[in-house]
């Protein structure tokens, strides 16, 4: 069953597409009940105990009232199957699936579930701040990030190192070593503490074996603050030695060369504060990070890491906020080029140039080069493979996108944005039902993550095609509206959820509500300018076709970053065949016929 499709009396369960069909019709079932149904099927008629069901489907220590959650899930499964007798309650033990003769399994399409990592892997947990001052968290977090980068560079090709985003979720979290290792799928953990006092910094670290939590090695390092970065190289080398890995001499030497010159304490402090803020990816945090980085460069104008980080800030602002591309991307390109002229190993500078080429210039080959080079420079950073997967996806190279994203998922297994892109790229491939599972997993981890709510709404409004059925309006469009509304609440003014809510309302025939929401959008735009393509999508939905065309022209004039989605967002078909083809050509999204993607989205316009 786990290798294919299970069929029984008109019921078809597909593990790879994570879907249930009854008599050829897709049956909507929430992810947890559907996962429980897979577990019952895979038990081949055996009893699944209450404890096993809760552990395998919900995870350990997730619910205060697990029995109620299990009962509700079984009830939903019975309703979905249309025959309550198929799920048998075994009193005092659990549940089992009645399996009549004639059930069978067969092969399914390529797997798009999370990849299973190979080889040995290491996670460096957030260094504990021993200063008893929460305001100093930026310092311990910054040293953690730098240590992750140093170890990753040193051990490239020999052991995988988990990226920053996933490990930072364990800051100030009390969990057994074995549990953390299981969640991150690692063989070793490094944990430690940092204390800064009287111009010195002391870092204590220990290496733990994940299978039993036994400490294999521990050591303390103390330096003046000026040498804090150089200390990361020493810790990285000691960690590699402790796990008996033969480190290539040239790799160790390159780290020492890169950290040989002491760094001004004030410059380093501002840099760490900026990095701490930059990880939040919100407009206020990024703008404050820019201020700290400019202060650092005012003290040391040739500090390449600050310059590269500043370039990255300007490169992500038009994506994470409503700032105009012309006001950000040229600055990002100039700063990144300057940073690389000072130090060609600055990963953030290459990523920034890749983002400029991707979102602003739409030069796919140049963007691909920078993302690939950034991955080579820092193999522990999940951002380069994530952005490279993004590039494959918007060009319609869907299987390559999912394969490439697998690298980012291995590096950053519990990152909300990386997991959201798993759902995003399935959606772009026209596999909306499959997209729901990773998106709902993200929302379990981060209930206020607006991008996941947005993508869930898109997927619910445009489901996978069902063979033999018309491509009409989604039965889950009402639920999609709710997802868009939640996304709006947490989006800090981003107008994309509103645009898709308007489009979905119009597709549902709720034209009055769509028109009212469109007028609200225009009022908001009069106060705070919104991207032309968001307004264009909404205008097209309410029948203002000429306005939509004018806004597409405005988008090209501004180099709206949303132009990159024209090929994979089928709602833009509503422009008209010739206008849409023209827009694709101008956006450099015309691809050879042999690579034309499966544009599987329902056109709800």
Automatic annotation (TrEMBL):
Superkingdom of the organism of origin: Bacteria
PROSITE patterns, sorted: OMPR_PHOB
GO BP term (any one): regulation of DNA-templated transcription
Entry keyword annotation includes DNA-binding: yes
Keywords: DNA-binding
GO molecular function, one term: DNA binding
Positions of the OmpR/PhoB-type domain: 3-99
Keyword Ribosomal protein (UniProt): no
DNA-binding region(s) in UniProt: 3-99
Family matches, as InterPro entries: OmpR/PhoB-type_DNA-bd, Sig_transdc_resp-reg_C-effctor, TPR-like_helical_dom_sf, WH-like_DNA-bd_sf
A Pfam family annotated for this UniProt entry: Trans_reg_C
Name this protein carries in UniProt: TolB-like protein
